[in-house]
Amino acid sequence: MKFGTKVIHGGLEPDPLTGAVMTPIYQTSTYAQEAPGKHKGYEYARTQNPTRSALERNLAHLENGSHGICFASGLAAMDAILRLLNPGDEVVATNDLYGGSYRLMRRVHERYGLVSRYVDMSNPAEVADAINEKTRLLWVETPTNPMLKVVDIRKMVELARAKNVLVAVDNTFASPYLQNPLDLGADLVLHSATKYLGGHSDVVMGAVIVKEDSLAESLYFLQNAVGAVPSPNDCFLVLRGIKTLHLRVERACSNAERIAGFLRNHPQVRNVYFPGFEDHPQHAIAKAQMRHFGGMLSFDLHTDSLEHATKVLSNTHYFTLAESLGGVESLIGHPASMTHASIPREDRLKVGLTDSLIRLSVGVEDVEDLIEDLEKALSEL
Ligand SMILES: *Cc1c(COP(=O)(O)O)cnc(C)c1O
Questions:
Q1: Has 195 been annotated as catalytic?
Q2: Active-site hit among 31, 42, 46, 83
Q3: CB-CB contact of 97 with 144 (8 Å)
Q4: Residues with CB under 6 A from ligand 1
Q5: Which residue in 45, 108, 170, 348 has its CB near the most CB atoms, within 10 A?
Q6: 344 pLDDT band (50/70/90 cuts)?
Q7: Could you report the per-residue pLDDT of 165-210, keeping only the tens digit for each?
Q8: Which residues have a Cβ under 8 Å from the Cβ of 253 and sit 6 or more positions away?
């Protein structure tokens, strides 16, 4: 089955009870039993819900995995993965990653004995150096947020295999349409379904997709035992969003490419970070492991003035100033004060996350309007 068919049919059948073409929202917390323990496979909705199961099967198809496990948010999904580890175990992660992921490791799991190290994963030698006998997990984010570096997933898998280390890839930025880490040897894929999978900025959800039954079993256990599950209604919204995933991402990618070119030639703009540029340091890796280059890009200003950045951020009209990404509407954000505010300034400057860095999540609007919007905001500096 090809991707555009999977989004609509992968793991999904019309409702066996009624023939409903769209998966029904089973808005129930519990299920009738005929006698104690005698039931139709459903007991209590934290453990099992048919709407959620349909989404989980669909997600497994999209990532070429065997199991999808959904959680109430992307961070709840990451929390479940981190709970696979024991106190004293170590994680090696990208040093330029989603701020909430950094916060979860440093401020929550460190209290329970997790040790996390942060390296530039676009440089495999740094990763090899950071792995020791206590390392259990590589936490890969690619393209990275917000610097749009690309990490060679195959290379990470190679380094991890030699040392019996699990590889998890946060695939939120790429979406399953652009990149399938399990095919490249990763053990776990994480999605903040809040972003491209949902795609309409109307739901918060997370998911993990795996191939291995034993990993899935541990994650299903945590899903039920910890209980950070999504509602049936939210599962319906993500199922609905996924049906147009390929169309939305395709358009976002072509829009982003045009916008990246426009910004690169703008006199006020210093750097544009976009893996689609042929001179992007990891362009060849992006080309090899992704279908297109994504709908995300960042840029900063020659002046690197916070005041100028604030002006741009406040003066766009179609680009809405907001957290998040991956929706049909274009968003503009300021990582230093928004998504990455929990990372100390000196740490973020080291990775190029300057005070004037602006991140765009390019939506599916007409690109001429988006370019005009940016042109106008930049001309007011
Ligand atoms: C948003 C995001 C998360 C966290 O997901 P939530 O659904 O907000 O909990 C994790 N990783 C990346 C790359 C994200 O963009």
A1: yes
A2: 46
A3: yes
A4: 73-75, 98, 100-101, 141, 145, 170, 172-173, 192, 194-195, 204, 206
A5: 170
A6: confident
A7: 999 999 999 999 999 999 999 999 999 999 999 999 999 999 999 9
A8: 178, 292, 293, 294, 295
- Nearest Cα residue to atom 7 of ligand 1: 74
For atom 9 of ligand 1, the residue with the nearest CA is 74
Can 300 be counted among the known catalytic residues? no
- What are the pLDDT digits (tens) for 7-54? 999 999 999 889 999 999 999 999 999 999 999 999 999 999 999 999
Domain ranges of the chain: 3-242, 245-378
Enter the CATH code of domain 3-242: 3.40.640.10
To the query of whether residue 38 is one of the catalytic residues in this protein, the response is: no
- Would you say the CATH fold of 245-378 matches that of 3-242? no
Whole-angstrom CA distances from 249 to 256, 302, 307, 310, 334 are 10, 30, 32, 28, 22
User: Is 46 a residue of the active site?
Assistant: yes
**Residue 280 CB partners (closer than 8 Å, separation 6+):** 148, 150, 273, 274, 286
- Which residue minimizes the CA distance to atom 8 of ligand 1? 74
The CATH number that domain 245-378 falls under is 3.90.1150.10
Q: Which two tokens stand for residue 192?
A: 């903040």
